[in-house]
Amino acid sequence: MRSARVAIMISGQGSNMEALINACRAKDFPAEVALVISSRPKAKGLELAKKAKIPTKVIDHTKFETRDAFEDAIQDALKAAEVDLICLAGFMRVLNPSFVHRWRDRMLNIHPSLLPAFKGLHTHERVLEAGVRFTGCTVHFVRPEMDSGPIIIQAAVAIAPDDTPETIGEKVLEFEHLIYPEALRMVAEGRARVSGNIVPIKDGQQKTGAIINPPVS
Ligand code: GRF
Predict the structure, then answer these.
(1) H helices within 27-164, ranges in order?
(2) Which of 30, 112, 173, 176 is 20 to 30 A from residue 213's alpha carbon, by CA?
């Protein structure tokens, strides 16, 4: 089977992008990074992608009059690179429903909370204010509403009494880097397919689509 061609879309530091690129380098990984698209010309992730010798394209949203025109440019780039799957990784633009529908069940996103809780920005501040004992991260298929869609994998991270938004952010990011490649692997292998609103996981190494930290013995 040919490996899935993946586009990673970023706007910032690109640490999840880097985790995906590194995972795709492994010989037995079922996907390859065909293209990195950045909505910001100065995104730090662009440099990392170039160093990794991945083709990059800046599609600067400020240069387009409408969101449709911006998305047409993205679509053209995806088509030219013969992309099968998209991974949004800190991509900070809202996408029109028409774009999302076109990539239905072929576009993944990562969010730094246990969705459907704490959608949107400033997640870790709100997690602390709410006093929840666990937070985490989620990789999901993208639907038009922000941070929503069938969940592929989650990691739960326990909150310590002295945690700050920054320390939670660091702990969660570490797990983001574990679960995003795993989600991509499961999708590319056809082991994680949408059924209604859920994503049953077929047999394989990661059977449950869940990681808990600290592990429950
Ligand atoms: C991550 O926390 C991700 O969950 C969120 O934006 C952040 C991007 O970080 N969507 P990076 O650019 O991958 O380092």
Answers:
(1) 44-51, 67-80, 97-102, 123-130
(2) 30
